Amino acid sequence: MHMHLYQAIILAIIQGITEFLPISSTAHLILFPWLAGWPDPGLAFDVALHTGTLIAVVLYFLRDWIQLLAAGIGLHYPRHASYEYVEHQRKMFWYIVAATIPGAVLGFLFQHRIEDRQGESWYILAIAAAMIVVGLVMWYGEYAGRLDRPMERVTFVDAVAIGIAQAFALFPGVSRSGATITAGLFRGLTREAAARFSFLLSTPIIAGAAVVELPKLMKMQHAGTLPLPFSMIAISIAVSAVVGLIAIAFFLRYLQVRTLKIFIYYRILLGIVILLLVFLHMGHAR
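-> structure tokens emitted (286 positions)
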């Protein structure tokens, strides 16, 4: 059973939206084909979608990353910027480096073990449970967080706490952005500051995954064993990137004036629906 172009485009749109909203891209990319009865798109397609969202986050924060990288290696850039601004950018660069380590280590140790079990029934149940539990944690973060510290007041401890939260997003249904933004709320950051730091932090971790998986994709292309046409993969990357850019811009503006409540309700409701569907499916299987 082969994937059609319209299916690839729909999944690319889903990836572009859910990678950056706190509702778990992993959950949606597994559940949507499962519910629709579509074929498993496979590794090549997964790499393509994540490459698209990597392009989105790099393009959106390109100026930020140029300044962060320049300050991180000791340059005074932009030239007209104050010493305090450049020093803040230097600290932010190394905060992001430190915050990336927990997720990188856990991903190296456990990513493939988790991925190898995606077809098992417990995996779907784990997604449902994580959707509900993390939704409740997000709700408490909204309730308990001071939400009064902007991006300029992010500390090393904040960065490490958010980095540890990102590591938990390796597990199905947690949501990388959901975990990191919620950790930021618990640390007292404003919603927008938590989301901005979350998106900057996503760049190296998504890039790292792409660096690991892209050589496999290139080998498959060279050997002529790609399960999908290269044109379909290219279109999926482009769609994922464009939708991802729109999702980032929308979400950062949204959080300037609104709460995470709509995403919390969505997570909990979807988790309950998944649980009901799994139990119904198990009942029919008997």
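Residues 156 and 281 are 47 Å apart (CA to CA).
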